Amino acid sequence: MTATGPAAALPVVAVVGPTGSGKSELALQLAERFGGEAVNSDSMQFYRGMDIGTAKLPVAERRGIRHHLMDFLTVREDTTAAQFQAMARAAIADIRSRGKLPILVGGSGLYVRAALDVLEFPGTDASIRGRLEAELDDGGLAPLVARLALVDPISAARVSDAKRVIRALEVHELTGRPFSSFMPERNYVQPTVQIGLNGDRGGLHERLAARVHGMVASGLQDEVERLIAQGLREGRTARKALGYQQFLRVIDGDSTISAATEQTITATRQFARRQLTWFRADPRVRWLDWSQRDLVAAAAELVGRVHGGPDA
Q: What is the pLDDT of residues 31-41, one digit of tens each?
């Protein structure tokens, strides 16, 4: 459905930034103030049962605010940015058609761009991807990165994790074009305001360490054990999620709870750094300090400028 009238004037709000920066809470505050609904763009929160390790906001803590695109995959399943693009835009259109403010919230950078920007996605080829994944298992990531640097140096400089390196190589083989050519100028599909949360790096590190320790205390290992029975080991993406891969090794007897906890903290800090690098590259993001006293008011002012509502 295409919104018309007042609903058509509603912007999309995106709350972005590194993990642990308080995106979920700010999204709730904005939804309460403007009459909004949340659209999840954290790719690990797509999975049913992956709750503790993804810091998924429990239903009881969502304050009655509807959240879209959570818990729609099993741990055996996967989705692509192109598929997410279609689902996110359908959810946004539905929210706007009911006169509500859509609030995209999450730190999966490519998925955020997929929802917000004029962005073309090339197709996929399971045989090419399977061969590249086999090469990764046999020879590690370095040879694939070296190959990518030859055919697509721009992507090679931007990507570092195995999934995205394989995707870039798959696209080049499939289309003959570098993956970077599918990431054009940053143009929103519709009026949008992106609010980024950032702050003291040391403070973020402390937050992330405390959060991981809290996850472990809340039963992360038990959650992983439950998900094994649901096919976690067979899932191509879910089993590699932060915390889950580390505690799979604990369950296998190859690590300890203490070691897995510290490894998860380190990996989470590295992930947060990559998220910041991604979002800082977008000049349209309006950054706020998560520790500022007037955070909600400052964010509401940014929304109000585009919304044209009472806070404009």
A: 999 999 999 99
* pTM of the model as a whole: 0.84
CB 69 within 8 A of CB 91: yes
Polymer length of the chain: 312
Q: Is 192 assigned a ligand-binding role in the annotation?
A: no
CATH topology for the 202-273 domain: Helix Hairpins (1.10.287)
- 20 assigned to a ligand binding site: yes
User: Tens digits of per-residue pLDDT, 15-31?
Assistant: 999 999 999 999 999 99
* Residue 307's pLDDT band (cuts 50, 70, 90): low
- The CA distances from residue 169 to 104, 157, 230, 263, 272, in Å, are 29, 13, 31, 29, 25
Residues facing residue 197 across a β-bridge: 288
Find the helix or strand (DSSP H, E) in which 194 lies: strand 192-198
CATH number of the domain located at residue range(s) 126-182 in this protein: 1.10.20.140
CA distances from 130 to 136, 152, 160 (A): 10, 20, 19
Residues forming CATH 3.40.50.300 domain(s) in the chain: 5-121+187-200+279-307
**Number of C-alpha atoms within 13 angstroms, CB side, residue 276?**
18
CATH topology of domain 5-121+187-200+279-307: Rossmann fold (3.40.50)
Question: What is the residue-averaged pLDDT of the chain?
Answer: 93
Range(s) of the chain covered by CATH 1.10.20.140: 126-182
pLDDT in tens, 210-254: 999 999 999 999 999 999 999 999 998 999 999 999 999 999 999
21 in a labelled binding site: yes
In this structure, is the dihedral angle defined by the CA atoms of residues 261, 54, 222 and 224, taken in order, positive or negative?
Answer: negative
Tell whether residue 22 is among the known ligand binding residues. yes
Secondary structure (H, E, C), 1-27: CCCCHHHHHCCEEEEECCCCCCHHHHH
